[in-house]
Amino acid sequence: MDKKAQASDAWFAAGDPSQPTRNELWEPVVISGQRIADEAERLLSLEVGDPIERQVRIVHPMACTKGLGLAPGIEVRLSALKPGERTKPFRHNATEVGFCIGGEGRLSMAGQSFGMTQYDVWNVPAWTSAVYENTGRTSQIRLTYSNAALLRLLNVHMVEDKAITGTTPETDTRPHGAPGTAKIRDLFQLADENWLMSYERLINPPAVESLPHRWDWQTVKAELDKLTALGDAYRGRRLYLLYNPLTGRTNGTTPSFFATMTVRPPNIVDRPHRHVSAAINYYFSGAGYSRVAGKHYDWRAGDLMLSAPGWAVHNHASRDQGPVYELTIQDQPFHIFQESLLWQESLASPPLLLGKQAGFETNRAELTA
Ligand SMILES: [Fe+2]
Question: How confident is the model at residue 3 (pLDDT cuts 50, 70, 90)?
C-alpha cells in the first residue's frame, strides 16, 4: 500500500531505489532587460515605509509558492533605491551574492563599509546585517542571489525577528568566529581508527570567521580581458570565479553559490555539457544565444536567464556584436559539499562526480606553452 491511511499518519511508499528518479526540469527562462528596467521603475515609484521595501523576487513560473526561486534552490531579488535612500538593517540565516546593475552606493556590514558601482559583486555572510545606501545621483539597481529559496523548502528560512528568533542584532553580542572553548577529549580515534566526537563539540563546532568581500568590476575585467588572447583553439571557458577563501575545496563565493565573471569574444560557441548545479546568467554586454534541452533562446545585454536547469544539456554562443560579459551564479559549492555534483563536460565522455573523482582538463597548458 503506498497511499495515506490517515492524514496524521506516516505512510509507506513503494520504492525501488535502483529505479531512476524522474526529476522535474524547470524550463529555461529569459527575463528581458526591458522587463527588469520597468519593474525597477515601478519599485522606485512606490510610497514605502522603509526603502528596503523596494524589492521583489524574480520567480520562475514553475516555482512552488514556498520556494519562490528562479531556480529551485536560488532566490533572485531585484532591489532599487532612490538617491539618498538607505535601507534598515536586517539579517537572516541565508547567504547572499550582491550585484550592482545600475547606479552606485555604499554597503555597510560586519563593521565594514564598501563603495559599489555598476557590475561590482559582493557576498553577504549569513546572520550579518547589511545596510544599503544610494550615495549617487541616479537610481541604484541591484540583483541579490540567495539560498533562502532552498531554506524555505526546508521550512527553516529564519529572518531575525524578536518574536521568532528571540534576538536582534543589538542583543547578539557573541563575536562571529569565536573559537570553541571545550577542553575535554572531544574528538578521538578508536583502536579500529574510526572517530568519535563528544556532545560538547557537537554543540560547539570550530567557528570560522565568515567575512564579506567586494570584487571591483574594473579590476576583475582587466584580468578577464587577458583571457581573450587564448583564441579559438581554447576548449575551456574564459572566466574567473570570485573566490571566497572561507569556502575552501568547494570553490565558492558563498558556501552555497559561486559567482563567475565570463568574457565571450564574438562568435565563440561552447561545447554542449551538463551539470547537476543550476546556473543563472546576467548578460551585461553583447548578445548571443543558448541551446538548452534542445531549445533555442536568444539573449542580449541586460537580460537575466535561468540558463542551465540542473542536468539539462546546454551550450551558449556569442554573436558578432562585441564581447559578451556575464555574471553566472551556480549552486555548485553546495553540491560539492553534498557530494552530489555530477558534471559531464563533454557528452562523448561519462559524467564525473566532481569533488570526489578527479575532474576534467582543458588544453590551456598546450596553448600557453
Ligand atoms: Fe554550464
Answer: low
